[in-house]
Amino acid sequence: MSRVNEVGRRGFLASAAAVAGAGLVAADHGAASAAAQAHESASVSFHGRHQAGITTPAQRASAFVSFDVTAENRRELADLLRTITDRARFLTAGGSPDPLGITAPPSDSGTLGPDVPADGLTVTVGAGASLFDDRYGLASRTPRQLTTMPSFPDDDLDAAWCHGDLSVQFCAASPDAVLHALRDVARHTRGGMQVRWRMDGFVSPPRPSGTPRNHMGFKDGTANPDVRDAREMDRLVWVGEGSGEPDWATGGSYQVVRLIRMLVEFWDRVSITEQERMFGRARDTGAPLDGRHETDAPRYAQDPQGDVIPLDSHIRMANPRTPDTADQRILRRAYNYDRGMDSNGNLDMGLLFCCYQQDLARQFETVQKRLAGEPLVDYITPFGGGYFFALPGVRDDTDWLGRVLLA
Amino acid sequence: MPETALDTEAEPEPESGPVPPGPAALRRPMLLAGGALLAAGAVTVGVLTVGGSGGSGHSADAAGGPRHTTVEVGPSGCGRGWRHAEPGRQVFDLRNTSSTAAEVYLTDAKTGAVYGEVEGLAPGTVRAMRVTLGNGSYAFKCLPDDADAVTGPTVRVTGGGSVKSGPAAVPVTQQDLIPPTLAYQKWIQARTVELVQKTDALRDAVDRGDLAAARAAWLPAHLVYERMGAAYGTFGDADAVINGTTAGLQDGVRDKDFTGFHRVEYGLWHGESASSLRGPADRLARAVRALRDSWPDQRMDPADVGLRAHEILENTLQFELTGRTDYGSGTNLATARANLDGTRVLLGYLRPLLRTRATGLPGIDSWLDRTQRTLDSFQHDGHWTPLAELTRAQREKADSDLGELVERLADVAALTDVRRTA
């Protein structure tokens, strides 16, 4: 429909402005967050070489949903992916839902009002290793590094919260738009897939400025690669041609999701000095312990013994900032989660960690192995998540998610 | 009597049927229908042709929202105000200028198929009707409460190019639903007879103290009842007596009001003695006998029939595929299959109405078959796998198939909602 396209075109311009605005955050916190706020409810372009929702600045609300595919054959899998594409295209553009008259219940849940606002929604779809088993004849097309997420030494994985055939990351300015999109997609795909697990997340507002904080009170994601730097994204995030990956995977990205419970009551009983030495940053400002501002780069070379920033602190182990480790950096896109209480009356909250990278082994796994045994692990429990491959983008109105994969 | 879809049997039967629906359920006397048609003809005015040549062009939306047109609803002005017809997605703001509430349809002027409806538009109020219109001839139809329908002027939409009109269907009336309702009532009557026989066998086994035979007899009796889902509303309190759960009962499985199949099931699969089960089994047998004897005097509401086409399996999803109604026998999947059979029977009777209306019927049939295959794969040599023993993939498949099916059956319920046409 023409209306949807109009909205999409308007939205493309708006989203470009939003990206530019958010990019300013590093330089000028106050002004930039106001700019990002003003644009965050606009439409993010669905079409492109890559999927949206990866380098898109993190919207406030998210739901990360893992699905198992119940389609009975490859043709049905293609139908499923076409349907997801159609719904995502409509939902991310916003517009007026189809009136179905007396022939059906209303086509839309109505939770966003009679006309669906885009609300900055992105819908990002990934494929898990299990999708490439013998059911759909895709084994020979498995991304080179895509496996079932292994259990790392500090993990305590619960099978009910792990893996899945497809991942769908819904992100929007507001939780109602996220839930509306999930409900819409689920309704249109009941016969093709079933939710395996789901975790909702949120990004806190800057307190008082800069990168938002996690449940441990620390700013989380300060040292992310610059999403405005297309060459950096090509080096770190996107699978390119000639990388040894199957041709269909060009333009995609490896997605790692980790559900990490934070034992916040325990954490609150830890002294501030110890907390800061575990992270390597000051809690109040987010500055590295050898700096004054959040954005200051730590100078590890001048602190070889780790007297100021301990050698086993999180930031130092995760990103040693050496030439050798530059290509190991990941694009973090983490959310906080809160899911009530556990059976002992403790708060059940933590990090819905998500990151994107070009190469699982070179990036996430290398960093994760380096972090093994860091002091922070006593206060967290990674219990779920999975490895997925975020599919290449949908080029235009005739394209669909997974078209080249299933060609 | 086969348990599954009965296309041939579903055709309207020439005989008068055992129990005509009570006139109280009718919204207006049927005899007025002919008169209403005449009246409608009398007020229909000449075709009004207004092409898509208005200043704003053919776009459904230039300023951020769908185009709005205010239209009058009243005995002397049904549809007045629709002067500049344009194709595309649009909203009609319907204003009731009369002194009585009314229903409003936007119809295809040739076929009477309805593109949009607003029910119970109160006097003096305005409500929105959203539609998508392609090229064609349309007319508003106003149906004031307690008065004949009035059809407004025919309006021709042109210049729509490739714009396709939204889906439309000819309304289903109370009269349309009477034959399938009567046929279904008759089918239920035969089921009540079967139910009594199989429940008697269960009770007799308990009486004899043969609990193994009682466990074997429980499921066949219960499944007969589980196939009768569209009639539960008409059964009234008897349904809770025959097939109630502990929901709402203060003392749970020990509650004196916990009766029927699930009470007997609980005892049979929790080591209760035959003597303690005689009371519950006998009470169940008496309850189904009373149901059989009273059924010929019952009147099903024709409005129930279409609604139950999706509600039976909604209950299956809610209570069977979650295991909520399992009191020990582990037969939720057998029940789900019986519910599917019951839905097929109902659809069989509705089929003559759906064939000319619902384009989704082949899809429904195919998902019925698929769901049946999935459920049947959980049965081996007469033994049904308990829900908790399904693998994750098996359970997802069952939820997926049934979930898709209810999405599709919801359209049947929407379409067979009772509507006036005159």
Automatic annotation (TrEMBL), chain A:
<dbReference type="GO" id="GO:0033212">
    <property type="term" value="P:iron import into cell"/>
</dbReference>
<dbReference type="InterPro" id="IPR006311">
    <property type="entry name" value="TAT_signal"/>
</dbReference>
<dbReference type="GO" id="GO:0005829">
    <property type="term" value="C:cytosol"/>
</dbReference>
<keyword id="KW-0479">Metal-binding</keyword>
<dbReference type="InterPro" id="IPR048328">
    <property type="entry name" value="Dyp_perox_C"/>
</dbReference>
<dbReference type="GO" id="GO:0020037">
    <property type="term" value="F:heme binding"/>
</dbReference>
<comment type="similarity">
    <text>Belongs to the DyP-type peroxidase family.</text>
</comment>
<protein>
    <recommendedName>
        <fullName>Deferrochelatase</fullName>
        <ecNumber>1.11.1.-</ecNumber>
    </recommendedName>
</protein>
<feature type="domain" description="Dyp-type peroxidase N-terminal">
    <location>
        <begin position="51"/>
        <end position="202"/>
    </location>
</feature>
<dbReference type="InterPro" id="IPR011008">
    <property type="entry name" value="Dimeric_a/b-barrel"/>
</dbReference>
<keyword id="KW-0456">Lyase</keyword>
<keyword id="KW-0560">Oxidoreductase</keyword>
<dbReference type="GO" id="GO:0030313">
    <property type="term" value="C:cell envelope"/>
</dbReference>
<feature type="region of interest" description="Disordered">
    <location>
        <begin position="199"/>
        <end position="226"/>
    </location>
</feature>
<dbReference type="GO" id="GO:0004601">
    <property type="term" value="F:peroxidase activity"/>
</dbReference>
<keyword id="KW-0349">Heme</keyword>
<dbReference type="Pfam" id="PF04261">
    <property type="entry name" value="Dyp_perox_N"/>
</dbReference>
<dbReference type="InterPro" id="IPR006313">
    <property type="entry name" value="EfeB/EfeN"/>
</dbReference>
<feature type="region of interest" description="Disordered">
    <location>
        <begin position="283"/>
        <end position="304"/>
    </location>
</feature>
<dbReference type="InterPro" id="IPR048327">
    <property type="entry name" value="Dyp_perox_N"/>
</dbReference>
<dbReference type="GO" id="GO:0046872">
    <property type="term" value="F:metal ion binding"/>
</dbReference>
<keyword id="KW-0408">Iron</keyword>
TrEMBL record, chain B:
<dbReference type="InterPro" id="IPR034981">
    <property type="entry name" value="Imelysin-like_EfeO/Algp7"/>
</dbReference>
<dbReference type="InterPro" id="IPR050894">
    <property type="entry name" value="EfeM/EfeO_iron_uptake"/>
</dbReference>
<dbReference type="InterPro" id="IPR018976">
    <property type="entry name" value="Imelysin-like"/>
</dbReference>
<dbReference type="Pfam" id="PF09375">
    <property type="entry name" value="Peptidase_M75"/>
</dbReference>
<feature type="domain" description="Imelysin-like">
    <location>
        <begin position="183"/>
        <end position="386"/>
    </location>
</feature>
<dbReference type="GO" id="GO:0030313">
    <property type="term" value="C:cell envelope"/>
</dbReference>
<feature type="compositionally biased region" description="Acidic residues">
    <location>
        <begin position="1"/>
        <end position="14"/>
    </location>
</feature>
<feature type="region of interest" description="Disordered">
    <location>
        <begin position="1"/>
        <end position="26"/>
    </location>
</feature>
<keyword id="KW-0732">Signal</keyword>
<protein>
    <submittedName>
        <fullName>Iron transporter</fullName>
    </submittedName>
</protein>
<dbReference type="InterPro" id="IPR038352">
    <property type="entry name" value="Imelysin_sf"/>
</dbReference>
<comment type="similarity">
    <text>Belongs to the EfeM/EfeO family.</text>
</comment>
